[in-house]
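To make this tangible, this section ends with a sequence with its structure tokens:
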Amino acid sequence: MLCEEQFINKLLETKDYSLVENNNITSNDFTTCRNVFEFIKEFHNKYNDVPDKTTIAGKFGEFEFFSVQQDSQSIVDDLREQSLFRSACYVINKSTELFEKDANEGAKFLLANIDKLKPKYSMHFVDIAHDVDTRYNEYLERQNNFSKYFMPSGFDELDAHGFIGYERRDDLVLFTARTGQGKSFVLTKSASSVFEQGFNVALISPEMTVNQFAERVDSTMGGFSLNNLMYCGKVNGYKDFLTKLKQSKNRFCISTLEDFDNECTISKIRTFCKATTADILFIDGFDYLIDERAKKSDSVPNQLGHIAQDLLSLSRELSIPVVVVIQTNRKAVENDKDYIGTENITGSDKIGASCTRLISIVNKNPILEMTITKNRYGKSGKETKCIYNWNPDINTYTYIQNIEDINNDEETKQETEENKENFKSIF
């Protein structure tokens, strides 16, 4: 069979026996070339090397040599598929024959050979002790071109306090809060900022219409009163703003649930991201997503966990950050802490394991507190909080320094000490 000859020739060309070991290739995967494969295997066991073509030609004069351009993994997949097909034909035909004679014997044979019908899988790994060049080169590249790996979140202080920004190849960021705390406003601010940096933004709005969300974006980027935009108040400069926005080279694409036929699955989201050439994906509502691999027996937490896993896989597949707002469960209402952790999210175990970063939002009007409760790419060890004075009408966030900022800033710290001395002299 051609796939067997391709594999053997690829092995002889590369002389890389890991093609056998890493993919769990055995003699059972061969029929026409089994004797050649077994010879190579025995040769490698004895000499820790792959024989050359001259040795094979001298031993197996009938074997045909040719150049193989096909990718190694695709050759392995073809070989496995052929091997599985042969095994399936044998097991199914033999069991059918036995079932016709004696159902008990047929069942025994089928159960005894059922493992032969299981597909084989490759085991991928990296030897970090020897494959050092890749990560060192990436380390140098991050130093010289940090923006290739991270894009600012739109909250400078949050980034400065260890959030760093969105990782552009592998990031599932969750903004979580109780109902009505300002999650969507935070998402709008972040998405607007990323767009203004020149990136293509894809955003899914499950609750608001496109125009409703677009007005929030206009308010955020243009500094216009959202109340006036929504309720037909006078907005100076709005037409000029929209004319300039229309000249943008990058895109800000919004879809609603209706655009997904009211079933927002990962497969459809993948198509949406590719169609919009998205550099980043924002989703204004985790609970609206559908688990397309759910079984009837799966609980709601399990389904939500699947969705989180699939969103992270999507981020890695497309090399784009995925940023989602998610509502807390009922326990968060009784939470006596001033921030919300993964334990306050429905399906918290799997969601918490899958998300790379978690930002808690607590609204103490007009103060908005944002706490980094999980951060794979930044500082670890304790929660980091940023406090803002928030104006929802124009969606602005004025940072308020906290004690940690003052202590870390030598100039501010000195001024504070001087003020203390002045107070002492007064009293």
Observations:
- Residues 2-117 form a domain with the DNAb Helicase; Chain A fold (CATH 1.10.860.10).
- The chain has two domains: 2-117, 154-410.
- The radius of gyration is 30 Å.
